[in-house]
Design a protein that fits this description.
The protein has about 130 residues and is of the alpha/beta class. It contains three helices and four strands. Strands 1, 2, 3 and 4 form a four-stranded mixed beta sheet that branches. It has one domain: Histidine-containing Protein, Chain: A, CATH 3.30.1340. Keywords: Signal.
């Protein structure tokens, strides 16, 4: 089942509402909301990460990452991407690694105990 992309819509709305006051500020006065929007957009555009499983919080240039990723590589990638964002000086990486999140969600995976289904067509009365 595909999920509706709520996070990108929220980011776009936040950017649209916050843009006029942000443009008038200097780089030193950049608010955390702007930096958070840049970070979440970076995660959204990265094909190696699932941005819906990573929660971000920014306070005074410190990014806190939480949630679940599939591997240590993804955990390190999320941290490296955060550090690459202008306005983030430090990252507190609280991401948990859970390999079971890879591939299909467990509730939709076929069960080994479930009987095999026949692919032969059944006859229908006419």
């Amino acid at each position: 089942m595909k999920r509706f992309p709520v996070k990108p819509i929220l980011v776009a709305c936040a950017l649209a509402l916050a843009s006029p006051p942000l443009l008038a500020q200097t780089e030193e006065q950049r608010p955390d909301l702007w930096v958070k929007a840049k970070l979440e957009t970076t995660y959204l555009l990265n094909r190696q990460l699932n941005p819906f499983d990573i929660k971000t919080d920014i306070k005074d240039g410190v990014a806190v990452l939480s949630g679940t990723v599939e591997s240590d590589v993804e955990r390190d990638l999320a941290e490296a991407l955060a550090l690459s964002i202008e306005g983030i000086q430090e990252v507190k990486n609280e991401l948990k690694v859970d390999p079971s999140t890879a591939g299909m969600p467990p509730q939709t995976a076929p069960s080994a105990a479930s009987p095999a289904r026949s692919r032969t067509p059944t006859s229908r009365p006419r």
